[in-house]
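Hey,

Quick one before I head out. I ran the complex with nicotinamide-adenine-dinucleotide overnight. Inputs first:
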Amino acid sequence: MNETIFTWGAPPLKFGPGAIDEIGFEMSQYDVSRVLIITDATISATGIPQRIQEQLTRYRIRSEIFDGVHVEPTDDSMDKAAGYAREQGPWDAFVAIGGGSVIDTAKAVNLIITDGGELLDYLNKPIGAAKAPAGQLKPLIAVPTTAGTGSESTAMCVLDVLSLKVKTGISHWRLRPTLAVVDPLLTLSLPPEVTASAGMDIVCHALESYTARWYETFDRKRAEDRVTYCGSNPVSDLWCEKSLKLIAGSFRRAVHHGADDLEARSEMMLAATFAGMGFGNSGVHIPHANAYPIAGMVKDFHPAGYPQDEPMVPHGMSVSLTAPEAFRFSFESAPERHLRAARWLSPDAELHNDPVEQLPSVLVDLMRDIGIPNGIGAVGYTEADIPALVPGTMKQQRLLATCPRTPSEDDIAGIFARSIENW
Ligand SMILES: NC(=O)c1ccc[n+]([C@@H]2O[C@H](COP(=O)([O-])OP(=O)(O)OC[C@H]3O[C@@H](n4cnc5c(N)ncnc54)[C@H](O)[C@@H]3O)[C@@H](O)[C@H]2O)c1
């Protein structure tokens, strides 16, 4: 029997310039006395976590700052953060102030501190046991400082499992932050390279969600078996459409004039949050599944704008590199959705004559304009790496389940091969 039900969830939102100065008041509504503020070293150096700490003090809430989050978190770095929280606790609540790396780490810390056990218990199958938290977690206020992941809205966290060289995650609706506080002023300091990479994450969230398998095409589930990603649906579609339209007007401006274009920064923040409200319920597919091995098997790529101490392919960049080819592959599953999305992203330009090429060519134009590397070749991969990349994608069954056209291993190998150069 086919599915008849879709689910949709998002936390309450406080949005706008100056919103972070209301975190003390917001936290005081939860009847808490001791809070851990979780961040990374770069954000800590801006003084913003300290500003939040002063806010909390004003409402007689004691707090400490942990600024040891690893950019692109790993099982090891999340365990260290949880270890710190365990040793220095107890905590009544958490504030996450940073990009997706910070917010995801805070979700994992909250889970382990509140529900007990080890990270591995909760990781998605087959890597972990996909244990569901027994009860409600502690309040977590998520404050994004990048316009990208939408993690402030979503019910999942993502990490690298170092020993297996694989990226995976934890997904359960209880991970969703209690409140999202989104303040576009925080993103004025984002380097252009982070703006570009994180912004491509938004683009792909919205496009993959909008082209994901329609929820009614799945088999009917029991209430206890429902998963976080239920396929595209009428509510997620609305958020994705709006997100793509905002991106069309503001993404290039945010990359090239981001230090003083608050309107573009605000629209990108809205776009990120909207896309999170979309894909966080419907799901993503091939570009995200391919991103996991592209990031996980990195050799020697050190992108500008990011910490230089270890090689990395930033998340949004890794997602975007095979997106043009992935949307050529998925086109036949829902042509009208691909064509509509191309028009939303590029409302004024003349689109390609060949309908299959419209969305890929709009994406390639955007990626060239904002300085995304030209294909997986530009971040260090050759044809010889493809047999090793493909199994990394095929392991992401949670993501491939929402793919509108089921890809075989050969299909994925072909997508990688044709993404070595995108233009
Ligand atoms: N949970 C989810 O739903 C979800 C969705 C997508 C991605 N992710 C995860 O999020 C992570 C990527 O997050 P991201 O793209 O937001 O980047 P990030 O958190 O990794 O930060 C990137 C870099 O930008 C710096 N930075 C952040 N904000 C800044 C600011 N305002 N000014 C100056 N520098 C700033 C950081 O210190 C870091 O060096 C990945 O691990 C990815 O897997 C999670």
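The mean pLDDT is 96.

Talk tomorrow,
K.
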